[in-house]
Amino acid sequence: MRCPYPGDESLAFHGTAAFAAWGDGSVLRDSVRIASFSDVFRTYDVTAQLSTATTLDRAVQILAAVSPSADATGIINCEDEPYIAAGLGLMMGIMRHPLWLNREETGMDYDPYDYRRRISEVTRAVRWHRIAPAFAMNAGTVVVDARRLQDRWRFAKGESWADWVTGATVVQGAPASAARGLALPVVHGDDLSQPERRIVRLDVHRQG
Predict the structure, then answer these.
(1) Bridge partners of 149?
(2) How far apart are CA 47 and CA 201, in angstroms?
(3) Strand, helix or coil at 48?
(4) Cα Rg for the chain, rounded, in angstroms?
(5) How many whole angstroms separate alpha carbon 188 and alpha carbon 86?
(6) Are 69 and 34 in contact (CB under 8 A)?
(7) Which of 121, 117, 113 is nearest to 85 (CA)?
(8) For residues 203 and 208, what is the distance between their CA atoms, to the nearest angstrom?
(9) What tens digit of pLDDT does each residue of 35-82 get?
């Protein structure tokens, strides 16, 4: 999945990039078919600006589509999303370093969250995996919240390696919550009914 969003790469995409809707569902079906005989399945390329929502949507939809009776003993690699890996029993593919160069030197995405230099959250996830390591796709029941939250980003020139999205506002949705082998978490708060709720990257790196 080189393309981070559906549609022709030459066409600026507007809409909600729901993974289950790619190619009328064919991309999800093909992903499940490949994942079913693979030792590791990567969720693959995303943009830094919408990485959390995009990766979460892909991983959860694949897990939900894999039957517990299927011969899918491999593990999903959710790339550089440590908290998703820890929370859903997935592998990580870390692509960050405290001395990461800026985008002018690397040609990579503009990173508004500076996550490529955030090492503490990786350390936390690795330590969590000592207690609860990643496990097979067909292990445990997957529960997915029917509600979807959305994040969005308008891509300016030079902000992404996926230069075909330049000038487009991409809206990326993902399930509000998901769980493997557990009940869905219950979230309490005063503003949960507000329509502007969005998926945001957890900004906890300043806590050390």
Answers:
(1) 174
(2) 13
(3) helix
(4) 17
(5) 22
(6) no
(7) 121
(8) 11
(9) 888 999 999 888 888 889 999 999 999 999 887 767 888 999 999 999
